[in-house]
Design a protein that fits this description.
With 222 residues, this protein is mainly α. The protein has one domain. It contains eleven helices and no strands. Helix 1 runs antiparallel to helix 4, helix 5 packs antiparallel against helix 6 and helix 8 runs antiparallel to helix 11. It is elongated and about 50 Å long.
């Protein structure tokens, strides 16, 4: 069982990761839309409605290098987001694992594997020359496992009743169908994680404010 200090600092890392995810994604998405592969995404009117004005306002931050290089530069932030998610999942499970039931435990395991794969994928895609290989071998299965792991872990979090229910609901729907729905709406996977970003901000803040270790906590009555 992890210490109370780890739970608090893990929560803070999750909170920071969620904030970075919200702030970074429009820049990464806009950089992707400027590439040859991403230009087709702007054909969707709901994507163009936000992406084109955003690119106009922040043009200096999106044109300091060729589009592909700008895309990779902003993509480096994903590693920080994944590490925040990973820290949050470990901290939250340590706090509530004894109260969350089987769904919480299985959800945590699936989410943990998915987040580790996502972390490896982020490193491989944006810090090594093996972008395509890392996306196929690590990021894709990682995202799929995160989708269903977050769903199960979120339900377990709601059952444990030890953190704000808003965080549990965001974690539940943010994985599936949230990743799919948000990716379609904003046109880029970075935006697909938005509900999970908000989930880890809420849960991370709650973990950061915890006092006492897991053995000293009891489920909240609501």
């Amino acid at each position: 069982m992890l210490s109370a200090n780890f739970i608090r600092w893990g929560g803070l890392a999750a909170l920071v990761g969620g904030v970075i995810g919200i702030l970074y994604f429009p820049f990464h998405a806009a950089a992707y839309f400027a590439t040859q592969d991403g230009a087709a995404s702007l054909e969707a009117p709901w994507v163009a409605a936000w992406a084109e004005p955003f690119a106009g306002v922040f043009d200096p931050l999106l044109t300091f290098a060729p589009p592909g290089q700008v895309y990779i530069t902003f993509g480096k932030f994903i590693l920080l987001i994944m590490l925040g998610y990973l820290s949050g999942a470990l901290a939250l499970h340590s706090l509530q694992g004894a109260h969350g039931g089987r769904l919480e435990k299985w959800g945590f395991r699936v989410l943990l594997v998915g987040t580790v794969l996502g972390t490896l994928g982020a490193f491989g895609e944006y810090y090594t020359p093996y972008l395509d290989f890392s996306f196929v071998a690590f990021s894709t299965p990682g995202i799929l496992l995160m989708m269903f792991g977050s769903l199960l872990f979120g339900i377990g979090t709601l059952q444990a009743r030890m953190t704000p229910r808003l965080g549990g609901w965001l974690l539940t729907i943010g994985g599936f169908p949230g990743i799919v729905v948000m990716t379609v709406l904003v046109g880029h996977l970075g935006g697909g994680l938005l509900l999970l970003d908000f989930a880890w901000i809420v849960l991370g803040y709650a973990l950061w404010r915890q006092k006492g270790g897991p053995a000293e906590r009891s489920p909240r009555v609501r």
